[in-house]
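thread: overnight batch results

M.L. [08:02]
morning all. the overnight job finished for the chain we discussed friday. pasting input first so we're all looking at the same thing
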Amino acid sequence: MKVFAPLFFLFFLTFSFADAQNIYPVNGQERELDVIVEGPLTLLWYKDGREQRFFSKRDNDIVELTNTQENGKYLEEYKDVLTRHTFNTISTADVKLNLRSLNNFFVKYNEQVEKTEKGKMESRMGVFAGVDNMIFTTNPTNVWHPKVGIEYEIFESTLPRHSGVLMGQYTFKSNEHRYQSLQLSLNYRFKFVQSRRFDAYVNAKFFAFTTSKFEYLIAVEDSEVPAYIYDKKSTSGVSAPFLFGLGADYRVGSGFITLGLLDLLGVNIKSNKEFPLNLTLGYKFEL
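M.L. [08:03]
and the structure it wrote out:
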């Protein structure tokens, strides 16, 4: 099971490398473009010798900025693109189709957006499924349990590396280890890698309410031959477990594919000494 830690690291490297390559789909073809200005409105640049081309990127919409000539008159199509990508909130009258002028325009617009959205609270909702070997329970044969969950993440736009998460997850019992639980928890996340496309973070669980049921075998008394039946035990309660794990979000379309390797280390909670396997895969979208 120790193979899952390298797999998570490979996941991180793969998406980080892909992000660094600056490969973008343009008119059905993939192009390697330089990022000149990055933000809500991103300026992309292609240069090969004397040839240079500019592209405006808004979310997943990438459009080349052109200025064709017809009957001796320049059509200035690039201004129409910029007007559409900025929702006509900033004048394009003085923008020229050159690196300096476009750079100033994109920087000005992004600063305007940042000032408008300063202090704005943002949120994301996600669902996930996975497996868990429940190392913080008595699990003699180290059985994997299927699980499903939902999470609500909230953060301030000016502090995107920090977020709070309310998480609910249900763990199903298995035939070999008849333990099942429902848990609601409060979590803090610090994103040590944070960009518009990829986040990698440490997840810290600091409060949890858990209700569980455990079926265990007991010997039948007064039986002529050894016999056992299942008895049930139910518990509920709150705890401050201080559990730490890792996670990553990778943007796909208007949402994110999420990967979690949670509850790897517990500070004030006892484990059964097995290697932790609390692996989740899910999808998260912005609200």
